[in-house]
Design a protein that fits this description.
By secondary structure, this protein is mostly helical. The protein contains 11 helices and 4 strands. It has one domain. Helix 8 runs antiparallel to helix 9. The protein is elongated and about 115 Å long.
C-alpha cells in the first residue's frame, strides 16, 4: 500500500535537554491534565458548596494512584513474565510502559478511599465524586494520547487516508512499515493517538455541558456510567486498527486493550441501571436557611420608648 498523501511525523520527543536531564513532551502533557482537572473540580465543588480545601488530598491521591496503577497495569497485563522475573524493573517508570486500564482501576480504588474518608462529613459519597472526576479524566486522557503522539508510539496499521502518519522516529514504524519494507518511502499509518484524543475531548465537552446545563434532569451516577460506556467503547473500537503492543496479542481473538475494556463497559451499563433505579439527584441539595419565626409584638413593645417610661415599663 502506497500513500501519496500523508503526514511526515519527525518530531523529537525531547523538548529540551539539560545535561543528563531530558524533558519530554509526554511528561509535560501527562502532568498538564492535573492542573486542568484541579480547576474543573474546584468549579464543581464551589458550585455545590463543598469545601475546595478537600481538593488537595484528592489531587495527591489521584496523582499517585494514576502513576502506580498505570505502571503496574502495563507490567502485569502486558509483560507479566518479564516483570515478575525482574521486579526491580517495575520501578523504572522513566523507561516507559503505562497502561490506561491499570490507571483506571487504581483511580477507582483511590476514589473509594477518598470518599470514605472525606465524603460523609461533607455531604457527598463516592458516586458523587465519580460523576465529576471522570469529566476531568476525559481531558487528562486527551493530553496523554497527545503525549503518545509526540513519542511516536501506540499508532495503528497502514492506511491510504490523507491524514495517515509516517512516524520517522519510531523503530516499530521503520522496521514494519518503513522504506526497507515498503519501498521507496514506506506507508502511512492510522494516527490512533489522535483518534483517541479527539474522542476523549468530545466526550469531556459533552459531559461538561450536561453537568452545567442538564444536571437537574439526570440522576447521580449517570455521568459516570456514560463515561465508562463511551470512553471504553471507543477504546474497544479503535483497538481494531491499532498495532499490538506485545507479541502474544497476535494470537488472541481480541487484543489485551479490548479484553480489558469489556469489564468497564459492562460496569458502565450496571451503573446506569443503578442510577435510574435509585433516582437520586445529581447535585447536592442545598438546605435553605430557615429564618426564625417572628412573633407578633405585644402592646408594650409597640410603644415608643418615651411612652414606656411614662407608663413605668422602663
Amino acid at each position: 500500500m502506497q500513500s501519496f498523501l500523508s503526514v511526515i511525523w519527525d518530531i523529537n520527543p525531547i523538548l529540551v535537554k539539560i545535561g543528563p536531564v531530558a524533558i519530554r513532551y509526554y511528561s509535560l502533557l501527562f502532568i498538564a491534565g492535573f492542573p486542568l482537572g484541579y480547576y474543573l473540580m474546584e468549579r464543581f465543588y464551589k458550585r455545590e458548596g463543598v469545601n475546595p480545601a478537600l481538593l488537595e488530598p484528592l489531587l495527591y491521591i489521584a496523582l499517585i494512584g494514576t502513576i502506580v496503577g498505570a505502571r503496574l497495569g502495563h507490567c502485569l497485563f502486558y509483560e507479566p513474565q518479564y516483570y515478575l522475573s525482574h521486579p526491580v524493573e517495575i520501578l523504572k517508570v522513566w523507561e516507559g510502559g503505562l497502561a490506561s486500564h491499570g490507571g483506571a482501576i487504581a483511580l477507582i480504588i483511590c476514589l473509594f478511599y477518598y470518599a470514605s474518608k472525606y465524603g460523609k462529613p461533607n455531604g457527598f459519597d463516592v458516586m458523587w465524586v465519580f460523576d465529576r472526576f471522570v469529566i476531568a479524566v476525559c481531558f487528562a486522557g486527551m493530553f496523554i494520547r497527545l503525549g503518545n503522539l509526540f513519542n511516536s508510539e501506540i499508532f495503528g496499521g497502514p492506511t491510504g487516508l490523507p491524514w495517515g502518519f509516517k512516524f520517522l522516529r519510531s523503530h516499530e514504524w521503520i522496521s514494519t512499515y518503513g522504506p526497507a519494507v515498503y519501498p521507496p518511502d514506506g506507508v502511512a499509518c492510522h494516527p490512533t493517538q489522535i483518534y483517541e484524543a479527539l474522542s476523549y475531548l468530545i466526550l469531556g465537552l459533552i459531559l461538561l455541558w450536561v453537568y452545567f446545563k442538564k444536571s437537574d434532569k439526570i440522576y447521580k451516577g449517570w455521568i459516570f456510567g456514560v463515561f465508562l460506556i463511551v470512553l471504553f467503547g471507543m477504546r474497544f473500537l479503535i483497538e481494531f486498527i491499532k498495532n499490538d503492543q506485545v507479541a502474544f496479542e497476535s494470537k488472541l481473538f481480541l487484543n489485551m486493550g479490548q479484553l480489558l475494556s469489556i469489564p468497564f463497559i459492562l460496569l458502565g451499563i450496571l451503573i446506569l441501571i443503578y442510577s435510574y433505579r435509585k433516582k437520586q439527584p445529581m447535585l447536592i441539595e442545598t438546605r435553605p436557611v430557615v429564618e426564625k419565626e417572628k412573633k407578633p409584638l405585644d402592646k408594650s413593645q409597640r410603644m415608643s420608648r418615651s411612652k414606656r417610661k411614662a407608663s413605668g415599663l422602663e
